[in-house]
Structures are given as structure tokens and as C-alpha cells.
Specification:
Elements (H helix, E strand, L loop, with lengths): L5 E2 L12 H9 L3 H7 L9 H15 L8 E4 L2 H12 L5 E6 L3 H9 L3 E8 L2 E2 L1 H9 L6 E4 L13 H14 L2 E5 L25 E6 L11 E5 L1 H8 L2 H6 L4 H12 L2 H27 L4 E2 L7 E5 L8 E2 L1 E2 L12 E5 L5 H24 L1
Parallel strand pairs: 1-12, 3-4, 3-6, 6-7, 7-8
Antiparallel strand pairs: 2-9, 4-5, 8-9, 10-11, 11-14, 13-14
Helix pairs in contact: 1-10, 3-10, 4-5, 6-7, 11-12
This protein binds pyridoxal-5'-phosphate (PLP).
């Protein structure tokens, strides 16, 4: 194969996963009334078409009722995280993150002037017991950032018991939870885990962050906020939203059309099938050719979190665990992704890793 380096760590979708024609058709099909309305200054909350279509889509996918009043269009999770720090916290406040965590979220928090406190992540997600111990010892965060479903990079889901406990702790200690949920709807099996907002029960503690980056395309810059209507109102008071009249209304109008005509649902189901099949190939290849490599197979999302004991050859790049660790630990781990390559390339990457492992053990024997 001619590909120089296989970037097995990258969380970008492969071109074959990007619904280019579908998106161009959605834009071309916008009625003049919809297009003109979306091209005007207009508050995000006034985008009733998006809010109704998203609420119906999420109600169908989550299997529980989501109200249009509890969702708001955004321009994706990254900017929403930054804005949430300004609306629901202040510079100098503490945000709790898992260790490991989505490596760029910590950069967003640092840019916002937040102080980081980390708690471990294990096979059941963020170790809420460790958070509780820290809270009992006096930690008073403004925000707790977690990735409840198909974690980046660990691939795990927050257990239902920990999820319940986390929301209870938020109520007791007065913090808010930033639930970063871009992968929830990319479940390989029949149903996704419940979104964290389903446990909020009107308490106004959970701020769910969704994104079409993984469901359609990152370049759209369209996502959503899912929270109690009072928190939605507080978010809408952010100066950026008031000045800009919404974050990305025209692209949101295209996504609305795809939700309304059912194309989004069909596309997401195709994605789920493809990602699941790729994960089967990657895990089977690792088991067959790198028996020392350990991992827990994820039940959805993009990522496989592995312990790779052999050297990484020049022809393969992975995301090293330490980049995902705010404390710089996880040195033996690596994040592998099934988003960027199809099955033959994933097999080729594993074959290069296996060759390097063989070479290194032969070298070890020769010494
Ligand atoms: C956990 C997590 N949050 C947020 C993002 C970024 O999302 P967006 O493109 O909506 O800003 C990513 C992208 O990799 C992610 O993995």
C-alpha cells in the first residue's frame, strides 16, 4: 500500500462518511422563506423550526420526551463549552475533568481561565466516588465536565448509578455538569445510553452538549444545547448570541431540513453500521496479530482505548494516552479511531504494528 502514515489516532470522519451530496441538496431545497429568515439577524431561541425538529429527532432516538423549549441551536460543542464557562462560571473558578479526557476540552477551559481538577476515569466512566471524596474535602467546582457516552478517548459509558449520583452531587454542592455528548447517537447496538439530561428532572444541573460534527460533518459547525429552559434563557443572554442573532442559522436551516425529511435518521443509522463494522475489524485484527495489546471493546462511538506494549512504527500514528491525560499519565495507552479509515486500511495499520512488534522482540532476543 502506498499510504505513508496511517493516522490511526485521528477523530476525523473519512470522506466516505461525509454526506456531501445530501447536504448540498438540503441547501438547494431550502424554501425562499426559510432561507431569507435564516439569513437575517434572529435570536437562536427564535429558530423554532430547528428546535421543534431537533426535539422530535431526539425524542425518537433517545426514547424519551425532549421538549423544544429544552434545546437550542449552537455552532458545535467547542464554542459552546467556551461560552458555557462564561455564562455558568467565572475565570478562576474550578472545572472538574476526567483523566483521561477529550484533550482539547482542557485547552478550552484553560483559555477561559478556569482551574482544572481531575478525577480518574475507569471502565464505568468518570469515578464519581473520587469526585465525591474531593467534594467532602472541600472542593467547590463551578462545573464538572464529563463525557457520559462512548468517551473520548476511553470508549466507556458512565454507569447508570454513577450518572444518578453525579446529578445528585451537583444539586447538593451547587455545581453544573457539562455533559459532552457527541457520540451518544452513534451506538452500535439497538439503543443508546440515556442522555444525562434525562436524569436532571427539572433541577437545572445538567447542560447537555450535542453536535452534528459526528452525525453529519464537522465543517457545518452546528450543534445543540440541551438543558432546563431557565439555563437556555441564561445562555441566550450571552453577548455573542445577542449581538450575532444566533450562532450559525443558515447551516442550522439545512440541518433542520434533513431532520424533517428523515434523511438525518437514515444517515445516522448508516454511520452506526459502518463504525460498528470497522470496530469489529480493528478489534479482531488486534486480537489476531497483537495478542499483548489490551482493550475493552466500546459499544459505540469512534474510539478504542488500548494499552500498546510494542513500539509504534513510522508508518502508523496514534494519539498517545498522555496527550489525553491532563496529569500527563496514561503513557502506555493510545487512542485508536475507526472514523478516518475503512476496514482494509485498519487491517494494514495493525499489520504494520504487528511487524514492528515482531522486529522489536527479535531485536530484544538478539541483544
Ligand atoms: C468529546 C468531544 N467533545 C467535543 C468535540 C468537538 O465537537 P465540535 O466539533 O462540535 O466542536 C469532540 C471532537 O472530537 C469530542 O470528541
Amino acid at each position: 500500500m502506498l499510504v505513508e502514515v496511517i493516522h490511526l489516532g485521528k477523530g476525523h470522519p473519512s470522506p466516505s462518511l461525509l454526506p456531501d451530496a445530501m447536504l448540498r441538496q438540503a441547501l438547494a431545497g431550502l424554501t425562499s422563506a426559510r432561507s431569507l429568515s435564516a439569513l437575517q439577524y434572529r435570536g437562536a431561541a427564535q429558530d423554532t423550526n430547528f428546535r421543534s425538529a431537533l426535539a422530535a429527532f431526539l425524542t425518537d432516538r433517545y426514547g424519551h420526551q425532549v421538549s423544544p423549549a429544552a434545546v437550542l441551536p449552537t455552532s458545535g460543542i467547542s464554542l459552546t463549552l467556551a461560552m458555557a464557562c462564561q455564562v455558568f462560571a467565572a475565570a478562576g473558578d474550578t472545572v472538574v475533568c476526567g483523566d483521561p479526557t477529550y484533550f482539547l476540552a482542557t485547552t478550552i477551559f484553560k483559555t477561559a481561565g478556569m482551574a482544572l481538577h481531575t478525577v480518574p476515569v475507569d471502565a464505568q466512566g468518570m469515578v464519581v466516588e473520587a469526585l465525591e471524596a474531593a467534594l467532602r474535602s472541600g472542593l467547590r467546582p463551578a462545573l464538572v465536565y464529563c463525557i457520559p457516552a462512548y468517551h473520548n478517548p476511553a470508549g466507556v459509558c458512565l454507569s447508570p448509578e454513577r450518572a444518578e449520583r453525579l446529578v445528585d452531587l451537583a444539586e447538593t454542592y451547587g455545581f453544573r455538569i457539562l455533559a459532552d455528548e457527541p457520540y451518544t447517537l452513534l451506538h452500535y447496538g439497538p439503543a443508546p445510553p440515556p442522555c444525562l439530561m434525562s436524569l436532571d428532572r427539572g433541577r437545572g444541573r445538567v447542560i447537555g452538549l450535542g453536535s452534528f460534527s459526528k452525525l453529519l460533518a464537522p465543517g457545518l459547525r452546528v450543534g445543540w444545547l440541551h438543558a432546563h429552559p431557565d439555563l437556555i434563557a441564561a445562555f441566550c443572554a450571552h453577548g455573542t448570541l445577542r449581538s450575532g442573532g444566533g450562532l450559525n442559522p443558515w447551516m442550522s436551516a439545512a440541518v433542520t431540513a434533513l431532520m424533517e425529511d428523515g434523511s438525518l435518521g437514515a444517515h445516522v443509522d448508516r454511520l452506526r453500521t459502518t463504525l460498528s463494522a470497522r470496530m469489529d475489524v480493528l478489534t479482531a485484527s488486534l486480537e489476531a496479530h497483537l495478542p499483548d495489546c489490551t482493550f475493552q471493546r466500546p459499544a459505540g462511538g469512534y474510539f478504542l482505548w488500548t494499552r500498546l506494549t510494542s513500539p509504534i512504527p513510522d508508518g502508523v500514528a496514534v494519539l498517545s494516552g498522555s496527550r489525553c491525560s491532563p496529569s500527563g499519565s496514561c503513557r502506555e495507552q493510545a487512542r485508536l479511531s475507526v472514523s478516518l479509515y475503512d476496514a482494509p486500511m485498519l487491517q494494514e495499520a495493525v499489520s504494520r504494528l504487528a511487524d514492528a512488534a515482531r522486529d522489536s522482540s527479535a531485536l530484544g532476543r538478539a541483544r
